[in-house]
Structures are given as C-alpha cells and as structure tokens.
Amino acid sequence: MNTLLTPLPKSTPLPRYATRLLGAVLSATAYVVCLPWDLRNSAETAGATAETSPVTPQGITALTAALLALAAYFGIRDRLAWTLLVVATPPATLLYISFDTHPTLDANAWPLTWGSFALLMGAGALVAGSVARRFGRRGG
Q1: Is the pLDDT of residue 1 over 70?
Q2: CA-CA distances (angstroms) from residue 22 to 19, 47, 74, 124?
Q3: pLDDT tens across 25-77, in order?
Q4: What residues form DSSP beta bridges with 105?
C-alpha cells in the first residue's frame, strides 16, 4: 500500500512512466464512458439545428468525480505539471476531436466552447491536485 503513495519523481523510470500512462488511459476512459459519442446525432425536429445528445447530467457528474479523484491522486504522488498533463490533457484532446469531426450546423462556436472546457478541466485538475498535495503531506 505504501508504494501506491510514494512520490513518483523518486521512483525508477519504468514504474513512474507506467503509472503516468495508466493515469492518462484512465482519464481518457472516464471521458469515453461518461460522455459517449453518438455518431448518429439527429435533429430534434425536421429542419432544426438543435440535435439530440447522449450527454447527461449524470455523465458529466461522473466524469467530474473521476477526474477530480485522479487529480487528487496524482497531486499527492507527482508534480502539478504532470497532474495537469495526465488528468486534463486526454479528455481535452478527445473533446477537441469530437468537436472537430462533428458536422456543424450552428454558428461554429466550438473552438470557444472547447477552450472554455479545456481551461475548466485544467484548472480543476490543478486545484484538486494542489489541495490533495497540501492535505496529503500534512497527513503523511
């Protein structure tokens, strides 16, 4: 159990990068599971630009909880820059791909939307990692 909380910068390279890679995979998996892509989006009514979406409030809540938990874990174990890269970058990249590959019928505001959500994910990861680091060191 103690090896699960040892600082990553002090560990050997293989476990350090394997843990970081596993964290990035978990972050991307949480995004895909909680916010599924529905490639068959359809207009709500004929001629409407609003589409149906598989995104639910429960999915957003689950994704937020998963990313905050990962950020807290990596905040305790690793440097904050790595916490940002491991936790926030995979879902932000998948969100970019989702927006970029989706045929747009609207005013094409997705770059602003993506930037806002990427900033929110990054800030959340940094804040959760910082808070966990502070309390993790105090308790240890």
Answers
A1: no
A2: 5, 44, 11, 20
A3: 999 999 999 987 765 555 556 665 666 667 789 999 999 999 999 999 999 99
A4: none
Residue 2: its H or E element: none
Of the candidates 81, 91, 92, 93, the residue with the CA atom closest to the CA atom of residue 126: 81
- The DSSP bridge partners found for residue 43 are 51
C-alpha distance from residue 25 to each of 31, 53, 91, 92 (Å): 10, 24, 10, 13
Q: Name the one residue in this structure whose structure tokens are 């930037």.
A: 115
Label residue 108 left, alpha or beta by phi (over 0 means left) and psi (-120 to 50 means alpha): left
Could you tell me the two tokens for 98?
A: 């989702």
pLDDT at 87: 97
Q: Kindly tell me the sign of the dihedral angle through the C-alpha atoms of 24, 29, 35, 37.
A: positive
